[in-house]
Structure formats: structure tokens, C-alpha cells
Amino acid sequence: MDTRKPAQDFTLRIRRYDPDSGEAPYWDEHTVTLEPHRSVLEGLLQAKAKYDGSIGVRCSCRAAICGSCGVRINDKPGLACHTHLEEALKRSKDGKITVEPMGNMPVIKDLIVDMDAVHWKKINRVTPWLIGKTPVPEREYVVDRVSMVDVTQTMACIQCGACVSDCLSMEVDPGFIGPAALAKAYRFVGDPRDAEQQQRLKDLAEDPNGIYNCTHCFKCVEACPKGVAPMNQIMRLRRRAGSDHHIDDRNNGHRHEAAFVTLVKQGGLLHEAELLPRSYGGDSWFGKFAPKAGAELVSSLPVITKAVLRRKVNPKLALVPHKIPKQDVKAVREIFDTIGSREERYELNLYVVGDDKDLEQPVAGAVEDRSTT
């Protein structure tokens, strides 16, 4: 960002709302004059100081550390102190920078939302502290490097609530524990010092609003300003619960995932009509004949009927499996075989970029360069 550019005018369109006033929300516009590399937060504070002292905005460190100034800027969640005015202007639709309070949380005033009512309530739901093993070691509990790196990504969370603001599952089901709290849960599930990993996973798997309520929309991954990737942490919780601890949850979450994987491996694409019976009746073609699958199909008939009447589902296409060329099916199966043949599961982690041994091995080109100097 070029800090030598002269000051220019920026128009901020701020969503104002005071629930105690009884009046409806409205938009308020102010033009501020600042250098382009200044932040949206600085623009808001100038508008507050120069035009209207009643503008409600929360901030503290102004250095993208405390997470206090989380807002929605041009329909995207982010930190007001970490968003340059020039960048925000480029993303605006009409030359005006729109600033709103974060979503999925009640508004206290203007850009200030009630974090206690939603965000912190859900964080407390996952027991956000380490439950130490006993007996307590005489000296410190040394954690191996791999385990520490594994949880480092979740430790980067600054609790700004940006992921909560854009979570589509929470829009539909406000009871969903949510991306921030579940990422926090992995912080302790992945820590070898924690004594209650099994209990934590069983609790989150059995909860109807738990880990299997995420819809993989990636909105929380896009929203996080610190690269925590909450959805990835939720998927890791699922793998630990279902594959490592073999938790057969009452929500049918793990069986549903297993059926999904089997169908894609067998046919190269998902066969939706087979998914429900296999999830409830067993992961095979005979699953549809299981009494449990039949009962679930009968209970789903009203939803299926409504979908057909609204032309959301074509019965003929739904009952006939999708067909793709044989070589493509073979290629898909080879991917499954390659991943399945690995001795250890490879977990993607933003902070894992190599191994210490890689640093110890001399680079041939580097040696040659030194010898010629």
C-alpha cells in the first residue's frame, strides 16, 4: 500500500439503528478526507468526531489483534481497522463504502452487536479451557512439535465474530454451535494434554446443533481475517469423532458421510436417491430394505412430495444413477485408492509448510553458488 498518496474524499454509507428508539434502521452518509492507506475505522472515527458523535462503533487496539471492530464492509465481514479505504472503495458498487453491523447477532446500536448473546454464549458451550490429565507431571508437560503445530491455526483466532456473521447454517438454525466455537473446540481436542477428548467429541457429535450441522459453504473460511479456516477445523472434528474414535452419533452424521463417500467412489458422482437409505439402513445397495431406512423414507415423503410439486426434484432423474465415462470413474477410484493407501491421514494446516529435516538438507544449487563466490 502506497502511503505517499495525498488525502482524498471517501463517502461512508453507515447503517444506523437504535433498538431502544423504536424507529426502523436507516442509512446515514458522511464524506471524510483521509489518505487512501488509512483504514475504514479511521474514516468512521473521523465521521464520528467531525459530523455525528452519536455513531456507535466499537474498537480498541486498531492493529487487527483484539477483534473489536468487526463489521460488514460492502457486504463482506472484516475488521474495520484492517481494511484500507482505497481497497474498500475498489470493492464498492457505487463509489460509496457501505458499513453495516455483523450478521447473526443482535444490534445494540449502529455498528455494535451483542457478542455476549451469540458469540460468547456459543464459545462457552464447548468448554473453552484445557482439562488437564492426571497425575500432574512434576515438571512441565512437554507437547510434541507436531501436536503443537496442529492446534496453532485455531489458536490464531482473535474472536472477532466475522465467521459467525457470515455463517449460513446459523441463519437457518440459530442453535448451531457455529464456526468460531467449533474451531475453539478443536483447539482442545487436538491438544494431547487434554483428558476429555473422547467426551468432547461425543458431545459435539451427538448434539443436533453440533459438528454435523455445518453445510460446507466455505463462508467462514472466506470471512476469517486470520486464516483460521473454521470449516476445516469442523471437518477435522468429524474425522476424529467418526474415524478415530468410532462415535456412532444419533444424528446419523458419520453414517451419512460414509454413504456419501462410498457412492462417489463407486459411481464417480453422487446418487442422491441412494444416500438416505444407505445412511440409515447400511452402506450398501441392500440398505434400502432395512426397516430403519424404510421408516426414514416414509417420514421424508412430505418433503419429497413438496419438492416434486415445486419442480425442485425430477423423479426420473433422481432415481436413475448419473452416468459418466468409465475412464472418469476409474480416475476417481484411483484418487480414493491413493488417499486410502497412505499410512497416516494428511491434514491440511495453514501452518504446516514442511519438516525440520527439509531445512537440514543442503540445497544443491545453494552449495554451488557459495563455492563460486
TrEMBL record:
Binds 1 [4Fe-4S] cluster. Binds 1 [3Fe-4S] cluster. InterPro entries: 2Fe-2S_ferredoxin-like_sf (IPR036010), 2Fe-2S_ferredoxin-type (IPR001041), 2Fe2S_fd_BS (IPR006058), 4Fe4S_Fe-S-bd (IPR017896), 4Fe4S_Fe_S_CS (IPR017900), Beta-grasp_dom_sf (IPR012675), Helical_ferredxn (IPR009051), SDH/FRD_Iron-Sulfur (IPR050573). One of its GO terms (molecular function) is succinate dehydrogenase (quinone) activity. GO terms for biological process: respiratory electron transport chain; tricarboxylic acid cycle. Residues 202-234 form the 4Fe-4S ferredoxin-type domain. Pathway: Carbohydrate metabolism; tricarboxylic acid cycle. Its cofactor is [4Fe-4S] cluster; [3Fe-4S] cluster; [2Fe-2S] cluster. NCBIfam families: dhsB, PRK05950.1. This is Fumarate reductase iron-sulfur subunit.
